[in-house]
Amino acid sequence: RLESVAKAPIISHFSEAISGASTIRAFKEQERFQREFEEKVEKHLTSNYINDMCNRWLSVRVEYLGNLLIFLVAVLTFAYKSSLSAGMAGLAITYSMMILDALSWAVRMFCELETDSVAIERIREYDELP
After folding, report:
1. Lowest mean pLDDT among 47-56, 76-85, 86-95, 108-117
2. Helix (H/G/I), strand (E/B), else coil: 83
3. Is the pLDDT of residue 95 over 70?
4. N- or C-end of the chain: fewer Cβ atoms within 10 A?
5. What's the angle, vertex CA 126, arms to CA 120 and CA 130, rounded to 5?
């Protein structure tokens, strides 16, 4: 959400600078516009960095949980080796690895859905304008 909110002022500022380039030069405001643009880009990059680090943190935690599940399935397979055939043991471990992939995909899709819902919030804000 922060990244999307921080990107809009950059695009707006850039389009204003392009359309008013002759006026900016006439009043010798190039340095001010450049400074404002750099501040907006820095704010966007800061929020982008925070977003990336949160995604990395979440990815590590999901991988940890998935690997713990695989480990538990492997230990249980070893514990019940007398009652399980080799094929069933392999199938159980393979399915636990597939659950890890499905879990990672589901978390990634949920996070993407939450990020994309910013557009819906903006539409609601525009709808409520007088």
Report:
1. 108-117
2. coil
3. yes
4. C
5. 150
Cα dihedral 8→123→107→104 (10° resolution): -60
User: Mean pLDDT, the chain, as a whole number?
Assistant: 89
What pLDDT band is residue 1 in, cutting at 50, 70 and 90?
low
Which of 77, 71, 105 has its CA nearest to residue 89? 77
* 3-state DSSP of 86-112: HHHHHHHHHHHHHHHHHHHHHHHHHHH
Which amino acid is present at 1? R
Which tokens sit at 119?
A: 């557009």
Please give the structure tokens belonging to residue 61: 């935690």
